[in-house]
Amino acid sequence: MRLFLTDTAIGAFAVDENGNVVLKVVAPNDINKLVERSLSIENDVPTEEFKKLVNDLITTYGKDLEVVVETEGYAKYLNELGLKTTLQFGNDVILRFRSELPKYAVESGFISSSEEYKNFVHMLALAVTRSKLRVVAQKRDLLAIQAIRAIDDIDKVFNLFASRLREWYSIHFPELDDLVKEHVDYARIVSEIGSREDINEKNLRKLGFSEGRAKRIISAAERSLGAELSEYDIEPIQTLANIMLELNNLRDGLTQYLSSLMKEVAPNITELVGPLLGARLLSLAGSLETLAKLPASTIQVLGAEKALFRALRTGGKPPKHGVIFQYPEIHKAPRWQRGKIARSLATKLAIAAKADYFTGRFIADKLKKALEERINEIKTLYAKPPPKTAKPERRRTQKTRK
Amino acid sequence: MAEAVRVYEYSPYKDVYVVELDDGSTRLATKNLVPGRRVYDEWLFKFGDVEYREWNTYRSKLAAALLKGIKELSICRGDKVLYLGAGSGTTASHVSDIVGLEGRVYAVEFAPRVMRELITVAEERINLIPILADARFPHRYRYLVETVDGIYCDVAQPEQASLVILNAKYFLKSGGYLYLAIKARSIDVTKEPDEIYRREIETLKRGGFEVIDVIHLDPFDKDHAMVYAKYVR
Known about the structure:
The complex is a heterodimer of chains A (402) and B (233).
Chain A: E1 2-8, E2 11-16, E3 21-26, H1 31-42, H2 48-61, E4 66-69, H3 72-80, E5 84-87, H4 92-99, H5 101-107, H6 114-136, H7 140-169, H8 176-179, H9 183-192, H10 201-206, H11 211-222, H12 231-265, H13 267-273, H14 275-285, H15 288-292, H16 296-301, H17 305-314, H18 328-331, H19 335-359, H20 364-381
Chain B: E1 4-9, E2 17-21, E3 26-31, E4 44-47, E5 50-54, H1 61-67, E6 80-84, H2 90-99, E7 104-109, H3 112-124, E8 128-132, E9 148-153, H4 160-171, E10 172-183, H5 195-206, E11 209-216, E12 224-231
Parallel strand pairs in B: 6-7, 6-9, 7-8, 9-10
Antiparallel strand pairs in B: 1-2, 2-3, 3-5, 4-5, 10-12, 11-12
Helix pairs in contact in B: 4-5
């Protein structure tokens, strides 16, 4: 008996010369397992389903079976089992079978309708491609780390420049400092308008100020106590403002780059805490690998090393959170809930990091749901601050090293 | 932004439209499968209840081939197409527009860098199936791809024709069509095809393809020609 064997996205099939399916082993409809077996087929390694199919065939038809497969890896496997194997790709039988793959998917009960097959094949291809991209993405975590550090550098420099700009321009127009609190808006006024005499409603509105604010700025400019400056003196101030605006653009670009990079490098972490905080965690750990190997308790206080070691040294209270304090649910929560939420978030992050580094599976949706449930629980269980108790006596400290 | 004043099908091609703008110019377009979303920097036109997506003839070789009057556009609604060398999805997205929700485009691309862009296009288009693989080894994606109605190939590879033949053996139905973008340096390819180009056509013929039409894409694409062929098993 001559049979054509093929391993597909939905399972392994044995087809006879007339195109009838003789035997099939359907794969479990679980996305992570499907991705795994897809990669196995791509690497020309027979899958579990295929092995079971061959096994079943041998028990039914015996060893004098003649089989046809399409690739060397599969042919080798069958040869070693002692089956008469032919290697032939693009044969009519398999071609016909392949043209009706959606139909067989429904018939074998893998999915319920051919309409669903569309979603299935789309979803599987996306998942497989993503997981392959992730392999290529090795070392890209280092890029994300540099990008977030660059963003933090820019923030530092930007703030430094902003205070310099305010001080400098205040010689000319001191009242503006209080009127415009946003650094970027302030820099825009200096860069685009310059001298306070040139400030008018039209150009302020163009910069996006509301009518009320524009009027206040104009009236302040008219009554300003600042010194008159010539264009020659204002120009260098404007140059500084221009550079600030450029830095701001650079930051926006980097943020965008980082968020697409993080989705690729660490999709689970990113889904949980967003690209910026996710990258900061990577940066503090040093790489995705080290982050994946950290316990949740360490992740909880990453970025608060100073406070942690002080606490360990003196026997004082350890910090409740490190950089994960930036997670909105933590810093918005009342003080007595923060530690509990931080602990819960850190455990989920530890799982997410492990998934990102080791399996590449996407589990963040489940993690997020569990985290939200826990946060709600904390909020209801600990709605009121704990009663104040007398301060516990400090543990005797060991001699601190000088 | 210009407004569309008239839209009609670009005869004899099905599901390809000409959009006339109020400034008098015309654009090639397809019906947008995902209204409101752009793939590259193309324009979107609303006409009646339908949104059309400009098909840039300088960015897409298939659009250029249509404008230059290639014999037929065999790609039609409901087709399954194997697209080799999908790049960042410029042309592939228009093919996805044409085949519609009943059809499928298997978009094979080897370069991870462009695949990152392609995957964002594919996320929004349920009929666009991204495959990160080397088109020279079709057995690696045989588990996913069904038998297809046609192949569109635009890979910048010297062995294009043999690569197409291998893929056709795996996936192309008998009577299926092929659009192959070939790099050809000479201007009038039909009269003086250069050596590489002639060899590719020869290989195609030996591989079971019947070449129906060859169109040079000048001035939209100075270096390429589009080959239209049918496959006989």
